[in-house]
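Record pair follows.
FIRST:
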Amino acid sequence: MTFQSVSHWERGESLPDIALLVDLARILDTSTDAILGSGTISWYYRRKITVSQMREAIDCLKRFGEILGRDHFMYRAVIDGLDKRMNSDIEPSFSDDVIYDAYVCEAMTECVKNGDYIDMDDIKDHIKSAKPR
């Protein structure tokens, strides 16, 4: 399966091979009936998101700490909440490109789980650590 194939499925431009349905249902934690949607394609998205938007969101967190101070209770509440929820430490991402990209991808993943769409070409073009070194 290629990223392009999945992107075409998501946009309703093509359909997956029927032999993939059982595996897709298992991966998506749903049924083949739900995927087939009674013979209609029902892919609806809340909005399209971009890598740039996710970078901006994480940059805002960094800027929040710079403005208030990293010891300010409001900044600490946001960062500590993210760290606990994600079982990680977000602050190193502010100075490490690979960790930063991982957080951008995590933010995008959560958006997609909530019904947003992102173009796979945007990810390939803008996630630095995904490129060969």
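SECOND:
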Amino acid sequence: MKATICKVQFDIDYLCPNCRLHFRLSNDDIPQTRESSVECPSCLESLTVTFPEEFVTFPIKSNNKKKEVKDPVIQKAVMSMKSMGFNLSEATSLVNKAYHSGITVADLIKEAIRNVELSQT
């Protein structure tokens, strides 16, 4: 059985020539260009860091995906319709079609169910 890489931990240690502080950059903090500027956390000296040609970095994926903030009215209506027997995708679709700003949860559910009844006739 073959294992797959799920996460790469990568650290680079630096030495500030001004204050002699050792500091470390990890994962997302590591510069992704061949030459970049880094600030010493102790003396705040601006340092230029150059990576050798043979230095290989792995592409770093950010886990900071922006999550879509949904209206709580929509979430409550979808969950209510799901408890009535609709599957999640049906409930989400129906609620999104009937939603408009300022609508209450109860009215949103009524509108979504009315759309189901109209589509069946």
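COMMENT: The domain at 72-120 is CATH 1.10.8 (Helicase, Ruva Protein; domain 3).
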